[in-house]
Amino acid sequence: MNNSFGGVQMCKVASKEFRAVVIRSNGLFKDYARLVPEAAQAFLKQGHLVQNSSGLEAAFYEPKRGEDHLEGTFFTGYLVHEKAEMLPNGMEYIEARHTYASIRGKTADMGDLHTRLNNWLSENNRQQSIDHYIIEIYYPAANEEEEVEVFIPIKD
Questions:
Q1: What is the DSSP letter of 105?
Q2: Residues near 2 by Cβ (< 8 Å), separated by ≥ 6?
Q3: For residue 9, what is the DSSP state?
Q4: Nearest CA to 72 among 132, 15, 28?
Q5: Cα angle at 106 between 120 and 49, to 5 degrees?
Q6: How crowded is the C-beta side of 48, counted as CA atoms within 13 Å?
Q7: What is the 8-class DSSP label of residue 155?
């Protein structure tokens, strides 16, 4: 299978560093499919205020630690090239540096991308690190469906 069969890429592992200016939100994990896009839309209304923005939207998620872990914290915002002197009101700077397994595809296939990545982890005897954020980076595509790259932190 080639690397871009049907717009779907293979899973890969890399050490990455992310810097972003974000707004913090929280809610029930089961409501994330609704809450995260709402938070992202709210952020975009003020997104033009972010200095050093890359223009790429990002979401950082606290991993679910078990069945009894019902509510989590997540962050939505823009990746930035470097930390700004001033942060817009209500926003914070966040950095994440770790080894991640990643996959890229259409945002419409988000659930499937997460499933494939988790299956790949177990098939390759890799474990998710629950001490680091799960990260999604959104890539706008002219006249096409937006793409997303999902990064799951893994234990070294």
A1: E
A2: none
A3: P
A4: 28
A5: 115
A6: 1
A7: -
Ordered structural domains, the chain, with CATH: 5-153 (3.20.80.10)
Residues 6+ apart with CB under 8 A from 72: 26, 27, 29, 32, 61, 62, 63, 64
Cα–Cα distance for residue pair 109/94, rounded to 1 Å: 27
Question: In this structure, are residues 154 and 99 in contact, taking their beta carbons and an 8 Å threshold?
Answer: yes
SS3 of 132, please? coil
Q: Tens digits of per-residue pLDDT, 125-138?
A: 999 999 999 999 99
| pLDDT value, residue 104 | 95
The identity of residue 87, as a single letter, is L
* Structure token digits, residue 22: 């974000």
Distance CA 95, CA 84 (A): 13
Beta strand 71-80 with 53-61 is antiparallel
Distance of CA 98 to the CA centre of its chain: 13
Residue 141's pLDDT is what? 82
- Give SS3 for 54: strand
What values do phi and psi take at 32, rounded to 5? -55, -35
What's the pTM value of the predicted model, to 2 decimals? 0.90
Compute the Cα dihedral for 73, 74, 80, 84 and give only its sign. Answer: negative
- Answer for the pair 52, 80: CB distance below 8 angstroms, yes or no: yes
